[in-house]
UniProtKB/TrEMBL annotation:
<dbReference type="Pfam" id="PF00171">
    <property type="entry name" value="Aldedh"/>
</dbReference>
<feature type="active site">
    <location>
        <position position="252"/>
    </location>
</feature>
<keyword id="KW-0560">Oxidoreductase</keyword>
<dbReference type="InterPro" id="IPR016160">
    <property type="entry name" value="Ald_DH_CS_CYS"/>
</dbReference>
<dbReference type="InterPro" id="IPR015590">
    <property type="entry name" value="Aldehyde_DH_dom"/>
</dbReference>
<dbReference type="InterPro" id="IPR016162">
    <property type="entry name" value="Ald_DH_N"/>
</dbReference>
<dbReference type="InterPro" id="IPR029510">
    <property type="entry name" value="Ald_DH_CS_GLU"/>
</dbReference>
<dbReference type="InterPro" id="IPR016161">
    <property type="entry name" value="Ald_DH/histidinol_DH"/>
</dbReference>
<dbReference type="GO" id="GO:0016620">
    <property type="term" value="F:oxidoreductase activity, acting on the aldehyde or oxo group of donors, NAD or NADP as acceptor"/>
</dbReference>
<keyword id="KW-0520">NAD</keyword>
<comment type="pathway">
    <text>Amine and polyamine biosynthesis; betaine biosynthesis via choline pathway; betaine from betaine aldehyde: step 1/1.</text>
</comment>
<comment type="similarity">
    <text>Belongs to the aldehyde dehydrogenase family.</text>
</comment>
<feature type="domain" description="Aldehyde dehydrogenase">
    <location>
        <begin position="13"/>
        <end position="486"/>
    </location>
</feature>
<protein>
    <submittedName>
        <fullName>Betaine-aldehyde dehydrogenase</fullName>
    </submittedName>
</protein>
<dbReference type="InterPro" id="IPR016163">
    <property type="entry name" value="Ald_DH_C"/>
</dbReference>
Length: 500
């Protein structure tokens, strides 16, 4: 496979039909990292046609669940075999640290193993008591069909696995379009699927932009489901394009996530240290380019100044650099566009009255951070309020805003005062209060005295404009299945409804 043959259709790697190519840039120095095919409508239609044939005529949908599960486990083994290679690809392509890349590979491995076990462990169907021995009634699950998957640039491998693993476990075929900014790990994953023995046509890949590739997948009449992870504006367009064909739609559209800290969580030296450390982790891991980033610190007023001062002091010590370099704690933003957005959000916040506690600019170039890289200092903005753009909108950068409260009700009101609802956290030494507040938060995932961990067996998704549907867990498998009721009359006889 040559560098530009990154489109995979019906088991064959190929260049774009138009011959178009795209350079993939290393965000640490803005130099060319790879050249990939720039697919278009013709490539997309060919990929959908291959997936349609593979579903309607191929063996995969009828393959016994145990065999499908075995293939997913082989993929997991191959992921671990290539762990270092894939981690390096992910680090270079997205800018994240090499250790973050390794964690991603392990999480992807766990996702494939989880859905293999989940599918293999299910019964053949749910028997329904029809109230008579003359009827056998059962509810079964069948694959949806051809699935279109559109994934984001921040966690390309992870987000691909959250869609591919359950789709394959359920017996579907698919076409995946990774972000044009970070497509390289998805290309590698599709190669591993073929190596594991997946039949040709089941897994298809088109590298290219949202318009035309993503748009065509969303509207295509031969696509039965479209699963999209990305921004709110793009997700709305996907839903609109899918509506005329009434296909299933699953959307994960990010969040503006609160991290609520009560004073009693900071009552001891250990508690204070942990809460500050976790606030840094919540906001600045992967330079804040995380849909569940704890970008809104909502802290009790009585400990605000002490907490924010220590937070800013530690944030200033975060070591920036190329993600593959030893000792680097935070890499660059993914692109020049993301850097520009970050600068614009900080500028607007300062104009609206925020107090800059640290960061707020690009760092000076050094031997690790090249002058042309997309780096931005971890930034803490104090004295923020709900009317600010930086508080309302998903910034997807290393920006932490600080709001304060005096009562529990005020904390909950602030935390829920967002059109999103993906994730949030509450910190308190009072277990009853922590659980009480967690129950009131309108977010799909709520952490108590922690931030960021997730489990493949627990559903992931949000309330409000954070999207519809769920990934991971049993519901994540159900997204890729249709439910069918089979009613069998064991002793058929005339009904005699009509006299004639």
């Amino acid at each position: 496979m040559t560098a530009v043959e990154t489109i995979h259709v019906d088991g064959t790697w190929q260049a774009a039909a138009s011959g178009a190519q795209r350079e993939v840039l290393d965000p640490a120095d803005a130099k060319t990292l790879a050249v990939v095919a720039e697919g278009g409508v013709e490539d997309t239609d060919a990929a959908v046609a291959a997936a349609r044939r593979a579903f309607d005529q191929g063996p995969w949908p009828g393959t016994p669940v145990a065999e499908r599960a075995a293939l997913l486990r082989r993929v997991a083994e191959l992921l671990q075999r290539d762990r270092e290679t894939i981690a390096l690809i992910e680090s270079r392509d997205t800018g994240k640290t090499l250790e973050e890349g390794r964690v991603d590979v392990d999480d992807v491995t766990n996702a494939f193993r989880y859905f293999a076990d989940l599918a293999a462990g299910e019964s053949a169907g749910r028997v329904i008591d029809a109230g008579t021995p003359d009827v056998h009634s059962v509810v079964v699950h069948e694959p949806v069909g051809v699935c279109a998957m559109i994934t984001p640039w921040n966690y390309p491998l992870l987000q691909a696995s959250w869609k591919i693993a359950p789709a394959l476990a359920a017996g579907n075929t698919f076409v995946i379009k990774p972000s044009e900014v970070t497509p390289l790990s998805t290309v590698h994953l599709v190669r591993l699927l073929a190596e594991a023995g997946l039949p040709a046509g089941v897994a298809n890949l088109v590298t290219g932009t949202g318009d035309p590739v993503g748009a065509r997948l969303s509207e295509h009449p031969d696509v039965d489901l479209v699963s999209f992870t990305g921004g709110l504006i793009s997700g709305t367009k996907v839903a609109q394009a899918a509506a005329p064909t009434v296909k299933k739609v699953a959307l994960e559209l990010g969040g503006k996530n609160p991290n609520v800290v009560f004073a009693d969580a900071c009552a001891t030296a250990e508690g204070f240290d942990t809460a500050v450390d976790q606030a840094l982790n919540a906001a600045f891991i992967h330079s804040g380019q995380v849909c569940s980033a704890g970008a809104r610190l909502i802290i009790e007023e009585s400990v605000r100044e002490r907490f924010v001062a220590e937070l800013a002091r530690r944030a200033e010590k975060i070591k920036l650099g190329r993600g593959t370099e030893d000792g680097v704690e935070c890499g660059p933003l993914v692109s020049a566009q993301q850097l520009d957005k970050t600068e614009a959000y900080v500028a607007s916040a300062l104009e609206e009255g925020a107090l800059l506690r640290c960061g707020g600019k690009q760092p000076e170039p050094n031997e690790v951070r090249p002058a042309t890289g997309y780096f931005y200092l971890p930034t803490v903005l104090d004295q923020c309020h709900r009317e600010m753009r930086v508080v309302r909108e998903e910034t997807f950068g290393p920006i932490l805003t600080v709001e304060s409260f005096q009562t529990e009700d005020e904390a909950v009101t602030l935390a829920n005062d967002t059109e999103y609802g993906l994730a949030g956290a509450v910190w308190s030494a009072d277990t009853a209060r922590a659980r009480r507040v967690a129950a009131r938060l309108r977010h799909g995932t709520v952490w108590i005295n922690d931030y960021h961990p997730y489990l493949p067996q627990a559903e992931w998704g949000g309330f409000g404009k954070s999207g519809v549907g769920r990934e991971l867990g049993p519901a994540g498998l159900d997204e890729y299945r249709e439910t069918k009721h089979v009613y069998e009359n064991l002793r058929p006889s005339p009904v005699r409804w009509f006299a004639g």
